[in-house]
Amino acid sequence: MMNWLQSSSDMAERVRLHDWAATPLGPLDQWPDVLKTTVALCFASSFPQAIVWGPHLTTLYNDAFIPILGNKPSALGRPFSEIWSEAWEHISPIADAAFQGHATYIENFPLVIERGLVPEQAYFTFCYSPIRDAEGRVVGLLDTVSETTATVFLARRLSVLDAIGHAVANAADAEAIMTSTTQLLAEHLQVSNCAYADMDADEDGFTIRDNWTAPGSPSIIGRYSLAAFGTTAVNCLRAGEPLVIHDNLRELPPDESATFQALGVTATICMPLIKNGRLTALMAVHDKSARLWSPYDLALLREVTERSWAHIERVRADADVREGLAAYAELNTTLEQRVEERTLALAQAEAALRQSQKLEAIGQLTGGVAHDFNNLLTIIRSSVDFLRQPGLSEERRQRYMGAVSDTVERASKLTSQLLAFARRQPLSPEVFDVGQRVQNIGEMLESVTGARIRVQVELPPQPCFARVDSSQFETALINIALNARDAMDGQGTLALRVAGDRTLPRIRGDAGSHQPYIVVSLADTGPGIAADTVERIFEPFFTTKAVGKGTGLGLSQVFGFAKQSGGNIDVASTLGQGSVFTLYLPQVEAQAAAPASLQETPTPTHDTSQCRVLIVEDNLEVGRFASQILQDLGYQTTWATDAEQALALAGKDAMAFDVVFSDVVMPGITGVAMAKLLRQRRADLPVVLTSGYSDELAEDGYEGFEFLAKPYSADQVSRVLIKAMLKD
Fold first, then answer.
1. 407 and 444 share a domain?
2. Which helix (H) or strand (E) holds 353?
3. Is residue 705 domain-resident?
4. pLDDT, tens digit, 9 for 90 and up, residues 464-499
5. Of 104, 129, 147, which residue sits at a domain end?
6. What Rg, from alpha-carbon coordinates, does the chain have?
7. Measuring CA to CA, which residue among 383, 388, 199, 351 is closest to residue 284?
8. Is the pTM of this model over 0.85?
9. Strands 58-61 and 193-199
10. How far apart are CA 541 and CA 418, in angstroms?
11. Which CATH number is 372's domain given?
12. Inside any domain, residue 110
């Protein structure tokens, strides 16, 4: 087997230079063909992989596996058991099973590993696959692995924060908040004690009013002096820095460690809260044994401290207001009206406080809409002003008219994206093979993303079907792919994978489901997304791109489409490694193919002069405009301003008109309800519904009627009317 090591990767070069004669594998040219083939495939893969060969567990790995090793000593050619010696007791049974011929796949496997200055908790999703020679004997294993530490910690963090939020949402006093928060945090981190303390004005004295203690650990409620805990504690906390002690017996002088030991504490993280330049409060977790605190422990305590302070200050403010209100009522018993007004104002203020985050999101959304629509209106207004100028050349007149038309299309697209995010977009669901559709989209993306981005598509062996709006589905995938293209700066790999019969996990606090779901994932090799950005990427108008490079609505459309379709969208990202967006859609059984729809192009010989159209529109300006359009197209029109009038004009047998063109949202009977009544009178009556937005359409779809979204053009009206009449 000649020239098998052709890869230009760093690991390939290291393999070529390594002294293999001193290892159980022997010189490169004496390696068995199956090992050469496996190494070549491994080095060609962009996914982290390692090869464990023979009874000595000799290790080889590709470039993508290097970040998983971290700062471990060079692992090439060393036994796998020696490289991961600190965790081998957990890995060994899985490796043994692979050498016995059993492949193993495990998700989010927890391991404490050493690849830096200190041991760390990490999580991995991996597959151990046996490697067999020509006679079928297992001669090694292939380790395909992805580190999921960030994803697991994010899920754990969101879970405990969600639990604390629910626990204190209706708390009426600070003690209840402290009791719930300290217990949930302590149980989550598995510590001996968790406490919250208020600082005195002198920034030395502090009071622990409540704490949670594990069985066998003493309570530490009481008053204390910060100075009694030593200069290290004073200097850190007053400077706003957390006090982190893994083992006070080793790290502190005896007199300082004695203060901690008297409380039954050996390891500590104490988080200061600085408000208005003053040390205001402390929150701490303690353990009676020495403990190596992780960055996750520190970050979680910092966030819980901030939130606890906010909740406690809220209920204290509420208590102060209630006390003041009671005193006011007692002293002013004759001013009941003023008391009632004050109580109402207080209730409104409390409601406003609870809704502050929602209002902030609405403000951001409103500002984004106003900004984009003002830009569009500027183009329309300027173009109209120019069109009014006398003596305008035909070339310039066409240019300004084209600008107006294009801007209306952009405004319509903007409203469509906003409705998609709000899960109020009228959908036209159909059953289709998701794998086949993704295959088609993958082929199209090869031209959209550019020649330097390699598009990979991985499909399941069997078709899997979903019942969703195919147009919105394709738009969602394209939006994600274009974001990936921009993130990779036009160069890298975009992998689309489809899998069926999966469960829906819990995502961002939303409940999961054990019903079958189709999973469509798009993975890129970009720089990854920062943790603080991941939490906001689905917000409307939120974008990290330069001004003019993105609207911030692409991923909002994806989110809205997924939720409205009964699914969800998740994202996992590791800085420096890329991002994976995972779309979950409910899986359904295959259905017989629907008959082919009529062509969109209208029959050129269609005669409109004898065609009677009933227009139903409650808005006077829109009604006049629609009537004028249809008359200009040659139709005979009758205009009704509500459904009741339209039903009367149509007659008992609905034979008075050849087609109905109706708005959906109207006072009284809606357009959909009216159309159903007309169809009861005459089953073959063509009906076209039109709307800019409708709750009824968003929830139930088009109910089998033709639909034209507002705003519409004369050409679109002509096409949809002819389509409805030809179909019916």
1. no
2. helix 336-354
3. yes
4. 999 988 878 888 888 888 888 888 887 889 999 999
5. 147
6. 34
7. 199
8. no
9. unpaired
10. 10
11. 1.10.287
12. yes
